[in-house]
Design goal:
Radius of gyration: 20 Å
CATH superfamily: ApbE-like domains
Structural class: alpha+beta
CATH class: Alpha Beta
Order of helices and strands: EEEHHEHHHEEHEEEEEEEEHHEE
Number of strands: 16
Helix content: 25-40%
Number of domains: 1
CATH architecture: Roll
Shape: globular
Strand content: 25-35%
């Protein structure tokens, strides 16, 4: 389902496909007098928050404190975190999570798992580790090794695990000690939503939040127009970024997942970081990246990963048959000649910027 990027704190997967573009035209200095940037590091990557806040009430310390609290629910690199204690338990554990971040992440994961019929599966942790996306491996997995690991891979409730949420308490039980949860394909998106809620509570209306490439924008940019977001071309070994397309959005979240920068090569064979949780093997289809636009970033993050498992045709069918999700997708794939092609869901064209 997902893979591992270089990270310092968390193991959340992300492709750095999106970055902020300013709109064209000449503007006087006063146009951006209230906007300021806050930059930092979190979750093994970087974050940028651009805010229209004349009082400059949002500081780096306030954001870093929020991320620190978030880590104690969902970071697998924090030994005391909720998710780490669950993964390290032999049969189960009772925990307290006053923030509710774990519950939110778990419930949304179950929703996407069900909707995608298991193409999105946070129980993929043993496969990610087995395929060497956490640590260097001597050789890829064999079929028998994959079959053995798949015995511990299923996020279906009451199959390999059970969970109860009672107030701040979580009662978690699992059938096998090897069962472990990996929220790296959704938790980073949730962290964007958490910052969004924090800024909204402060009364702010115009801002841009980006954490490791997952992002959400509200209101207008410094030029008084919708935010311009660039989508990278999925070409390997580029020395400088090449923009494939530009989006114009407001009050929406964007997440991208892809294989073109996340893989390793062993004995001349490329192993993509997107793992199919049903087969246990890296996906082999031609889809290079999936960019999802949604109302919230955690769902955009999760669906982007699921779509990389589904492939092009299944993804487009899924979006078309689920209009209630309000999800649109932009797909880049390689044709038979290796040339990059694109397809998008019916509503995605509304977000293509017209300069």
């Amino acid at each position: 389902m997902c893979g591992i990027k270089k990270r310092k704190v968390l193991i959340w997967s992300v492709i750095f496909n999106l970055f902020l573009l300013t709109s064209c035209g000449d503007h006087s200095p006063q146009d951006n007098k209230t906007f300021y940037d806050v930059h930092g590091e979190t979750q093994g990557t970087t974050y940028t928050v651009i805010i229209d806040d004349e009082s400059k009430s949002i500081t780096k310390n306030s954001l870093d404190s929020l991320f620190h609290v978030f880590d104690f629910s969902l970071s697998t690199y924090v030994q005391e975190s909720v998710i780490t204690q669950m993964n390290n338990s032999t049969h189960g554990v009772r925990l307290i999570d006053k923030t509710g971040f774990f519950k939110r992440c778990y419930l949304e994961s179950q929703r996407v798992y069900s909707l995608t019929e298991g193409d999105f599966d946070p129980a993929v942790f043993p496969l990610v580790k087995g395929w060497g996306f956490m640590t260097k491996v001597d050789s890829p997995l064999t079929q028998s090794e994959v079959d053995s690991i798949l015995s511990f891979v299923s996020f279906k409730e009451d199959e390999l695990h059970s969970i109860q949420f009672v107030g701040d308490s979580i009662l978690f039980q699992k059938k096998y000690a090897e069962f472990k949860i990996d929220f790296n394909a959704i938790a980073q998106g949730l962290s964007v939503d958490v910052v969004d809620e924090f800024l909204a509570q402060k009364g702010l209306e115009n801002y841009y939040i980006e954490i490791g490439g997952e992002l959400l924008v509200r209101g207008k940019n410094k030029d008084g127009v919708d935010w311009r977001i660039g989508v990278d071309s999925p070409k390997e070994n580029l020395k400088t970024r090449e923009i494939e397309n530009v989006l114009s959005v407001s009050n929406l979240a964007i997440a991208t997942s892809g294989n073109y920068r996340k893989f390793y090569v062993k004995d001349g064979i490329k192993y993509a970081h997107t793992l199919n949780p049903k087969t246990g093997f890296p996906v082999q289809h031609s889809l290079l990246s999936a960019t999802v636009v949604s109302g919230d970033c955690q769902s955009a993050d999760a669906f982007a990963t699921a779509f990389m498992v589904m492939g092009k045709e299944k993804t487009l069918t899924f979006v078309k048959t689920h209009p209630e999700l309000n999800v649109e997708v932009y797909l880049l794939y390689a044709d038979d000649k290796g040339e990059i092609q694109r397809e998008m869901s019916d509503g995605f064209s509304n977000y293509i910027a017209i300069e």
